[in-house]
Amino acid sequence: MREMKSEDLPVDADRATLLGRVLLPAGPSPVAVRDGRVIDLSGQAPTLRDLVETTAWHGRGVDAGPMDGAPLLSPIDLQCVKAAGVTFALSAIERVIEERARGDAAAADAIRGGLETRIGNDIRSVRPGSEAAAALKAALIADGLWSQYLEVAIGPDAEVFTKAPVLSTVGHGADIGIRSDSHWNNPEPEVVLIVNRAGVPVGATLGNDVNLRDFEGRSALLLGKAKDNNASCALGPFIRLFDAHFTLDDVRDAELTLTIEGSDGYVLRGASSMKQISRDPLELVRQVMSEHDYPDGFVLFLGTLFAPTQDRDDAGRGFTHKEGDIVTISSPRLGTLRNRVTSCGAAAPWAFGISDLMHNLGARGLLTEGRS
């Protein structure tokens, strides 16, 4: 299901600057989309990372053909993949539920109502790191309701982690992977910022930060196993660069919709509103950059409001993925990211790493001195 259709583009694609990557016969190539056609920009910049660091390519490139049917790849290459977690009040409550249920979906429903009633409004009303947040923390500790997840929800330090290795992300139309030993999991529809080497956000795309609730619920120390698995990070369809028609304020106002369609006839619909995020995107970028340099830039998952509680099979067990689920994440200004669920072992193996890319670009004569 690799095909890319015009209807998957932003509603105002005619005035959007869209960058991505396709697999041309010669190898992976950075491209732009103009008037429904793919423009090969590899002659101007060998990697997507180079494209976001320079504007010299604007108005240039080689027509590579119609967009429909293009073998689309993830729209990033050399950037580090970072993610911020527990950035919405609802996601904070769900993480506390996972922790208290010890990763048991059947126990979660019994815990959910009480926690939402007791701490939901309080979490929504405070600014993370503020004096009011510190006072709320003291009160929750006194009531025996404190959690490590609440620490990153309302404390001064956000949860920021490395989601996936460089070049391991998958794009629109690819299969996404769920660990075969996970029995409680879900997609996470998110806006993803593209940040250049100077720490400046230059664009955005859509992402699916696949989540294994049973693993992370058993222990936060299992975050690596819960998040970093083969084909478990999807991005796309394209990066939309910031310009006069699309700015960081559009990210702050973004509304995401999600649909999960199972081969068993099951349908789940959800949404995530960036207006309800607890920390501003620029604050999250600042925390990523506070003690670390990223000479190739990075992308940053901003978190999600979406937390599926609708039962799929047995009452009280909530939602979990099944093989063959189609996950569709959409936002009017960013387009549509669509993927099919499989197991990590059955997903396409990740066999093309950084050295493979460099050898390919070198053989094509695309590596020259003086690039950004």
From TrEMBL:
Tell me one Pfam family matched here: FAA_hydrolase
Listed transmembrane segments: none
Q: Which UniProt keywords apply?
A: Hydrolase, Metal-binding
Query: Domain Fumarylacetoacetase-like C-terminal, which positions?
Result: 157-341
Q: Which GO terms describe its biological process?
A: small molecule metabolic process
**Span of the signal peptide:** none
**Domain of life according to the entry:** Bacteria
- Output the Gene Ontology terms for molecular function: hydrolase activity; metal ion binding
What is stated as this protein's family in its record?
A: Belongs to the FAH family.
This chain belongs to which protein, by name? Fumarylacetoacetate hydrolase family protein
